[in-house]
Amino acid sequence: MGRAKLNLFRANFGHCKNDCLDALKLKQSEQIWFILVRTRYFVEKYDECLKYAKQALEKYPNAHKIKDLADKAEKELVEEKKVIA
């Protein structure tokens, strides 16, 4: 998780995603899920952001930060689809 945080701060979002996925294999944590969801939001991969947020909220239904990011990603995804259409 420490390496994932460092990559988040360094804006190495691809490495951060991989670090989070590796960390989740070892230990489930709300903080790791939040970092993962956040990285997907930062790189504007809103569909991935929502996918991971949904998985996180199944395990941590009271994770307000993840829920807020999921709501933001959903709004961005709707806007993105409007622009394409």
Write down the overall mean pLDDT: 86
What is the CATH architecture assignment? Alpha Horseshoe
Overall, the morphology is globular
Helices and strands, in order, run as HHHHH
Biggest sheet statistics: none
Write up what this structure looks like.
The chain is mostly helical and 85 residues long. 82% of the residues lie in helices and 0% in strands. The longest helix is centred in the last third of the chain and has 21 residues, at 64-84. The radius of gyration is 13 Å and the shape is globular.
At a glance:
The protein has 85 residues and is mostly helical.
Q: What are its keywords?
A:
85 residues; globular; Serine Threonine Protein Phosphatase 5, Tetratricopeptide repeat
Question: What are the SSEs and their pairings?
Answer:
Blueprint: H1 2-9, H2 13-26, H3 30-42, H4 46-59, H5 64-84
Helix pairs in contact: 1-2, 2-3, 3-4, 3-5, 4-5
